[in-house]
Amino acid sequence: xxxxxxxxxxxxxxxxxxxxxxxxxxxxxxxxxxxxxxxxxxxxxxxxxxxxxxxxxxxxxxxxxxxxxxxxxxxxxxxxxxxxxxxxxxxxxxxxxxxxxxxxxxxxxxxxxxxxxxxxxxxxxxxxxxxxxxxxxxxxxxxxxxxxxxxxxxxxxxxxxxxxxxxxxxxxxxxxxxxxxxxxxxxx
Length: 188
What we know:
elongated
């Protein structure tokens, strides 16, 4: 009886081993959920017979806005910067949690140029990798600047500083502004 059980076990293992092999290495095996393996949608950059150009990578419809993005369609001018300072108020409540998040965003996006202290002596400036000096956020001019102006400058840029509205969400730009006005400029 033991010998018979041993034959059954060896035979079962042999069948299992042989059924796991394939002849051409191009067949991945059986699919238990074929709708997950073979998508009904067209793959990116594949041909799509539904369109005249046969492209499945489509541009978004004109005027559409990505989810979670609030457009800031203000030009980079002196007048608009001054208007932003007058008309825009910071919606962020000043508390420890918001200051912490603002500091995190500042360290990610602003510190390489403006420095940890905001004095314009970030790594890119002090290492001579960037030929222009970054603004000193601790200057009297910056201390007098309203929150809306700082938000505007982060959004559309100023001087040699580029626009960051496409890289930093609106809430994060306000958090950075809150951190600059309520922590960096008051630390001295």
